[in-house]
Amino acid sequence: MTCDLLVIGGGVAGLSAARRGLELGLDVLLVDSGEWRTGARRHLRFSDAATNLAQGGLAVVGLSDDSTGSYANGAPDSVAAHVADTLDAGAGHCDEVAVERIVAGGAEATEWLIGLGARFDRADTAPSGSVSELPPYSRTKEGGHSARRIIHAGGDATGAEIQRALEVSVTGIRLLQNGRARQLLVDSGRAIGAVIDDPRGRGIVAASATLLATGGVGQIYQATTAPSGARGEAIGLALDAGARVKDMEFIQFHPTVLFTRRETGRRQLVSEAVRGEGAKLVDSRGASVTAGMDPRGDLAPRDIVSRAIAARLRELGEDFVFLDARHLQGFPARFPTITAGLAAAAIDPAQDLIPVTPAVHYTCGGIEVTPEGRTCVDGLYAAGECSATGLHGANRLASNSLLEGLVVGKAAAENIAARQRDARSRGDSWAVSAVRAEAVASHALEEGLPRPDLTAEQLDRLRRAMQRGAGVTRTEKGLREALDIIDSLPQSVQVMAARAIVEAALRRPYTLGCHTWLDAVDIESSGRD
Ligand SMILES: Cc1cc2nc3c(=O)[nH]c(=O)nc-3n(C[C@H](O)[C@H](O)[C@H](O)COP(=O)(O)OP(=O)(O)OC[C@H]3O[C@@H](n4cnc5c(N)ncnc54)[C@H](O)[C@@H]3O)c2cc1C
Fold first, then answer.
1. 302 catalytic, yes or no?
2. Which residue is closest in CA terms to ligand 1's atom 53?
3. Is the CB of 31 under 6 A from ligand 1?
4. Ligand 1, closest atom to CA 215?
5. So what CATH class is 1-250+364-446?
6. Which of 173, 188, 243, 500 could form an SS bridge with 375, CB 3.0 to 4.6 Å?
7. Mean pLDDT in residue range 330-357
8. What is the model's pLDDT at position 179?
9. Which residue of the set 45, 302, 334, 508 is catalytic?
10. Looking at the chain, which residues constitute the CATH 3.90.700.10 domain(s)?
11. What is the whole-number distance in angstroms between the Cα of residue 82 and the centre of ligand 1?
């Protein structure tokens, strides 16, 4: 098979690139290891994409209805304020140029998404004096944001609506479901496609440009909010292709994940927006968990709140703290997805305290890319959670990841289309021949590639090692023990991702953002780095 653009992964980043590529006349092939199935939610969807699960919303400033809303403490919100909040949450480790480009690009990309049919919730009534027929978008606030700037859909089903709208927008695209990228093909320093396995066997795709958009690494840990697609495979694929990764030690632990005694598997998230609407974090004695930690209290950035919870749990020798949402009015209507998840655990937020604990939620680092998704390997792009533009720094600001996937996925397709146009105007052939890709693939197969997969038992060992050694708090001893186990396992692409996290963590023996180092004095605010 040949194409102009091979998109690997069908969440917000991959679908944005695929849709924009189609608009710009690229011949796009979309591959996803999950299934595009009609299911309980009535829409087609790649069920393994984290995008489906996003609850809180999309952080964006400057939409065309902004004159009627989006105020913080009476002052108008601004791109500059969103940039400042992002830099602050990122603990001084963000790439400022990337932050400005991506945040400033949010409104245009979101209007594009709305134009494709995404429907975001609107406020109940239009403000008096409004000339618009429609009320402004309803906006909420999450940890680290100085303004109510987060738009949402279906109450707390924002990601599902974005996924739905983007999937509908690529109807008719060349699509390979259950197709898993196993190996990237590189010829004289240029990425020229991939080896793809699907239930029918192994195939070779020759592509002028390849975009990795496979999501985060949550599933290499025992306890995560991330779905089964978040296996971290792009990290190993990209490293094998010669790309660089960065900031891998910054794994974000969401502070409020429903506690369960189950050892492994995806956990139910209780969105930060619940705290944004007034729920409080308390310990088993009823004392505030964050009092005295940060002036923003329960709505401080996630690293600070997760650390506060971890410290309180260590102090009390307990496994969970509580979220008290009993006083919130209209919880089921505002948070229908969370209400359903709590009901499954026999918890009624109007009556009961909600037991919560931190769990792996987001991969702040990843494949090093520009804000257009370009890696250092010609023809290889990455976008979304598997990539690192520098937007998140040492700790992602809530609701900035859907924004990043959308903006960078779209920008990557535009960059690829522009390169194709340039090549054609110079009379160069940009296309990659299937014969050449087959030859490169045969050579790789002779060398024993693709890498082996882990057995279920090996994956379990990896997850336990990562949870214990590279969890919410870290020590040199714990990280070295994790590394010993990593060394003992077959070097699969998932093990490569785990190694990248642990080695990066060992190279940073101090606390920064969501990398919490227990052996040393916390010098987070000392300006180091
Ligand atoms: C519970 C939860 C709530 C969240 N809430 C929010 C929120 O409110 N706001 C926000 O901004 N962010 C939120 N996030 C984060 C956000 O949802 C993700 O960061 C974002 O959706 C990732 O998009 P993506 O396109 O990079 O990857 P994904 O949406 O994860 O899609 C990746 C796709 O790649 C496929 N894939 C994986 N490996 C391969 C392979 N080797 N070959 C082919 N396909 C492969 C997977 O099956 C999957 O379909 C939340 C995350 C979770 C888990």
1. yes
2. 226
3. yes
4. 27
5. alpha beta
6. 243
7. 93
8. 94
9. 302
10. 253-360
11. 22
